[in-house]
Give the backbone structure.
Amino acid sequence: MKIQIKIYINGKRSILEVKEGTVLKEILTNLDSSLLDKYAGAWSEDRFVDFYETINKEGEYYLIQFDDPRALPAMWHTTSHIMAQAVKRLYNVNLAIGPSIEEGFYYDMEKDEPFTDEDLSAISREMERIIESNYEIEHSMIPKEEAKNLFSDNKFKLELVNEIEDDSVSIYKQDEFFDLCRGPHLLSTGKVKAFKLLSVSGSYWRGDEIRESLQRIYGISYPDNKTLDEYLYRYEEAKKRDHRKLGKSLDLFKIYEDTGPGLVLWHPKGTIIREIISNYWREEHIKRGYQLVTTPHIAKADLWKKTGHFEYYREKMYIFEIDGVEYVVKPMNCPNHILIYKNKIRSYRDLPIRLAELGTVYRNERSGVLHGMLRVRGFTIDDGHIFCREDQVSSEIGDSVDFAFDIIKTFGYENFVVQLSVRDPEHKEQYAGSDKEWENAEASLIKALYERGIEYIKEEGEAVFYGPKIDISMKDILGRKWQGPTIQFDFNLPRRLGLTYIGEDGKEHMIYMIHRALLGSMERFVGGLIEHYNGNFPAWLAPIHIRILTVTDEGNEFAEEIHKKLSEEGLRTELDLRNEQLSKKIRDAETEKIPYMFIIGRREVKSGTLSVRHHQEGDIGSFKLEEITSRLKEEIKQRR
RNA sequence: GCCCAUGUAGCUCAGUAGGUAGAGCACAUCCUUGGUAAGGAUGAGGUCACCGGUUCAAAUCCGGUCGUGGGCUCCA
């Protein structure tokens, strides 16, 4: 049977009559075989299809080139096969799975000895050979029974084959290598122009630690060397910006072995940053009608039994005993805020009530997941809880979204990814709350995003059981995503703890409760901020604003005078009167990423001015004290 | 928690076939008073993560513990 398909090549449309069941590759070969060299695959119905695609129905196919971000996963997947082929040629391994990932690919393999750096080099060399050989990649569908024979020596592949529901399975083959694989793939191994194997690590078959322990090699590839180099530059740059490294060299914080893993000690300079953020946070909350509260670090276990946390969250809680009574170190702040809400009978006139706290909590995270300040066991959440009526939900959500963006934009984040997590429509029964509540809540979340023209990704089934939520992540300069604000409904706690208010009708009504955190945790937020700014904090956040450097000791007296004046004006200043050369003092201040350096030598003493150097701009000229301080103060005020 | 790697002066790291440790930076003292990213000399500083074992002898070999890193996994 003939069907009609439309192929778009560089915006130009070709309408073709083809036989049903024809492979896209054949169609293109007939049309113009050079297309197979220029394009990587096609975009059709919101997904990437490779040229092995069998055309079974009418449709539109937009050919896309190798460097199109939508085509890169095919290249990565192909590179992972090339790598697996190379590994099979060199070692005795059992292949598990090797998908493309967000950036790059990996392959999990079972091998007795771990891979070394030398192994990686050898594998890379073999991969080069495979690429040079430019093996044609073939695709075929084979009966399941045949596949079982083909993979009879590989328990992993067999397990996968057995789980496939169709009668036939998809196989990709290049030279002697073949693999069970859904694709997509490129047409030949030579299409991969530049690749790099990045790291080796352990993993488990199916991510299950009870099952076979595997070895994973990660890699990346691109259609040209330039793009690969750009990626590698970003990769290296990210390593250099590591907040653990900068936290140490800038003396911001440290995790001490004596204190314990996942517990951060904020040094004086880190604490300045934290305090500035906290103060800003408090001011903004008060401005926006929040009431600040403070609640203790420990509470009776009974409280957590009432909320249900004790049952579900127990292994993450630190539990201990006082006078024979069980206590818990708080892993979250909400129960305490709820107690404050419940302390009085609330009228509909009192609502909304917004409570907020920079509340420090402790969670027993598994040792293997701890990571610098980004994943810790003790951290301060900027926790807020809104208690409101149904008719207030929409404006409260809208305000929270605005608030969230206002805050994070202040820290120089400009690109965001917004995710809306809603119920799994297939399993509505596993969620707390009524249909009506879910519908209202989702509608208000969507409305808030829509009215603000915010693009978002809707994830069905990603909501936690107690309510729908919006998660905002920030993208930093290197394009990395950082978890940011979250706004979540909670239909569970109000029910369990009986959170009500007295309505206009004199009756009790269930409250709507919204959890929201804007920074997330202070630790993770500042950790991310360190990497985002690469330690070059804008003046308002910089632990030290100015370092005063003297050229010789003739400047000491004047320098001390300036230092005193600046300190009196609330500017954070340090003096460097060491008997060192100016260039040395500059180097030290530059290394410490201090935004301003005031240089005082004989000339300045004589004229009463200051020679000013900016951390990132170099020498910016001579200024009168008032001139430069007002500039700096303005910069701080503007939070630039 | 699991797999793999790793743990030497405040920091970054060297230490090659087991014979009780080195460098650079930082620090201290002295010399140098030098104008926009490292002036010079001298010196102090380490129970080589911890515990145990093998050995005449352990930073080095073996076992265990703890920490850290890369992953897996988890995230009410």
Summary: Chain A has a mean pLDDT of 91.
